């Protein structure tokens, strides 16, 4: 966690911490760093309860945790490679993941979940 790393670097300003992680390819901003620092206790509780929440700003509506994890990993990979991920791309990837996992049509979500997923 960036906050843990920052605590081990007491000589660095918050601006330098953000710059360091941005150069490593993370999408960290000064406002998001400050918000996470301010809400650190609540954030740690969320992460303990639901490990995938580490990447989440808002709760997501995804029916299957395995599908959700696959989408998070894929999206992170795409962003690290410098690609933007669009809603239609997420829908298509979710369809492919659900198909490969053999999830029945009745248990799949429509496209409404995309907006909550993209906000995380």
What does this structure look like?
It is a single chain. The chain is mostly helical. It folds into two domains: 1-49; 59-120, Orthogonal Bundle (Arc Repressor Mutant, subunit A). It has seven helices and no strands. The chain has helices spanning 2-7, 14-23, 30-38, 40-49, 65-80, 87-101, 113-118. The longest helix is centred in the middle third of the chain and has 16 residues, at 65-80.
Topology:
Elements: H1 2-7, H2 14-23, H3 30-38, H4 40-49, H5 65-80, H6 87-101, H7 113-118
Helix pairs in contact: 5-6
- Count of helices? 7
**Molecular shape:** elongated
Q: Low-confidence parts lasting 5 or more residues at pLDDT below 50?
A: none
| Portion in beta strands | under 5%
Major β-sheet, in short? none
How many separate domains?
Answer: 2
Q: Determine Rg (CA atoms, Å).
A: 16 Å
Order of helices and strands: HHHHHHH
Number of strands: 0
Please estimate the helix content.
55-70%
